[in-house]
Design goal:
mainly alpha; 10 helices; single chain
Length: about 250
């Protein structure tokens, strides 16, 4: 065999080895991606399973076994992925809040008045109740009273809503006679707490919850009247509010 033939054979073997190495790397990467996707899928199943279990069975019956059964996975995976049931519930709380806020964010960004904000609140309340989210929130708040870690996660989830409402209030109150006298941050928390309270209150007094929404509607009408006043009237209101604030 000539030297050229030998070199050609070595070159072909080298190309073949390189091709095999590339194929091996591709298979390994694909396997890694598949494992990663499977792991993420399992975590999502557990998060969704925790949300469903808590809403449907209550905090007293929410355990690693019941969550795993709802999620359709092995019970040991609860501890493998999250360490404990409390950690899973905390993660599920954040996961659920992020999903709900993302679902409504575009509509929140389009709100231009307090009346529209309250109309959004009514509509969201109906949809969230039908989806079992109101029951879930009630169970979370009950459990958070005795579980500090869950309380922190619940507060973080509610804060996602409060942050969005704060943006809306800052936008709709801009230029209003009462804007300079309003603590937007505090008002956003008051609005959030009102909606949460009404949602839970409806479970024991549906008519009372409806009356509460009607009262908020009346406040929105009053704010609209303020906004529609002429410059002189708005100046008089500002002057009066300043005097009240100083006294």
């Amino acid at each position: 065999m000539s030297a050229d033939t030998g070199r050609q054979g070595v070159g072909q073997e080298s190309k073949h080895d390189t091709k095999q190495d590339a194929q091996h790397d591709t298979r390994q990467n694909a396997q890694h991606d598949t494992k990663h996707d499977t792991k993420q899928d399992t975590k999502v199943k557990l998060l969704e399973g925790a949300l469903r279990t808590l809403a449907e069975q209550g905090i007293a019956k929410t355990s690693a076994r019941s969550i795993a059964a709802t999620a359709g996975v092995n019970q040991a995976l609860v501890f493998y992925h999250f360490g404990s049931v409390d950690e899973l519930l905390a993660a599920a709380c954040r996961h659920g809040a992020e999903q709900r806020v993302a679902r409504y964010r575009s509509r929140l960004e389009g709100i231009g008045s307090l009346a529209e904000l309250l109309a959004f609140g009514r509509d969201m309340h109906v949809k969230e109740r039908e989806a079992g989210q109101v029951a879930f929130l009630g169970q979370l708040l009950a459990a958070a009273q005795t579980q500090p870690r869950l309380a922190l996660a619940t507060a973080a989830g509610l804060r996602l809503w409060t942050d969005e409402i704060e943006k809306v209030l800052g936008r709709v109150l801009e230029g209003s006679p009462v804007a300079e006298f309003t603590d937007t941050v505090g008002l956003a928390r008051a609005v959030s707490a009102s909606f949460v309270g009404i949602e839970l209150y409806e479970g024991v007094d549906e008519e009372g919850a409806a009356c509460a929404f009607d009262a908020l509607d009346q406040l929105a009408v009053l704010a609209t009247v303020f906004d529609e006043l002429g410059p002189l009237a708005q100046r008089a209101i500002r002057h009066r509010l300043r005097r009240t604030a100083r006294s």
